[in-house]
């Protein structure tokens, strides 16, 4: 019917905890909300009720470290390349002049103020060491808790939930059937 995988969610209105009836705004719900139950923080960490499986979305601490490392490496590379480029710029200017004289492609480019230098840098395929365009990476200073933690209900509780939902479904089906058939055959439930 559905998996024993429940996601922690927050709701605006508090409801009694499934176990201890204490009011709580935390809900454990399956992915498609086939089932959900209100759970206080205390019972969220009660292995007799539910066990934290994993953080489903969001990078792990390792992932974040990797991204940070890559980002730093890119930054370093960019600084190095920039230093090299300063040298290169003089040569480029010479070349530009020559191309203009010879009616090269560059002579068609609009001579807007500030145009050329930056544009050329990013679109230039001439320097192979030029790093790919860097998209700013939002690196959290510390691994934030993921939005939706994933839990598995205790086996006994899960099977009682399944049973309860099956009963409900059965009742709903029986009602549906009894609407159309005056003498609905009883299921062997
Ligand atoms: Zn509770």
TrEMBL record:
Composition bias, Basic and acidic residues: 74-102
Gene Ontology biological-process annotations: vacuolar transport
UniProt feature, compositional bias: Low complexity: 103-115
Region (Disordered): 74-150, 162-189
UniProt xrefs under InterPro entries: Vfa1 (IPR013640)
GO cellular component: endosome
Pfam families: Vfa1
Protein name from the UniProt record: DUF1742-domain-containing protein
Native species: Cutaneotrichosporon cavernicola
């Amino acid at each position: 019917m559905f998996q024993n995988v429940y996601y922690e969610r927050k709701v605006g209105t508090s409801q009694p905890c499934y176990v201890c009836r204490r009011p709580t705004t935390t809900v454990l719900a399956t992915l498609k909300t086939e089932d959900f139950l209100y759970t206080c923080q205390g019972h969220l960490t009660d292995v007799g009720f539910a066990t934290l499986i994993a953080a489903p979305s969001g990078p792990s601490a390792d992932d974040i470290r990797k991204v940070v490392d890559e980002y730093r490496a890119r930054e370093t590379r960019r600084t190095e390349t920039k230093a090299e480029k300063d040298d290169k710029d003089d040569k480029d200017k010479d070349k530009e002049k020559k191309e203009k004289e010879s009616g090269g492609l560059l002579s068609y480019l609009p001579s807007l103020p500030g145009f050329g230098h930056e544009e050329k840098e990013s679109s230039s395929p001439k320097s192979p060491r030029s790093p790919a365009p860097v998209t700013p990476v939002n690196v959290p200073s510390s691994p934030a808790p993921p939005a939706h933690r994933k839990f598995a209900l205790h086996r006994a509780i899960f099977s009682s939930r399944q049973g309860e939902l099956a009963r409900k479904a059965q009742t709903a089906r029986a009602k549906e059937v009894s609407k159309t058939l005056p003498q609905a055959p009883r299921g062997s439930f």
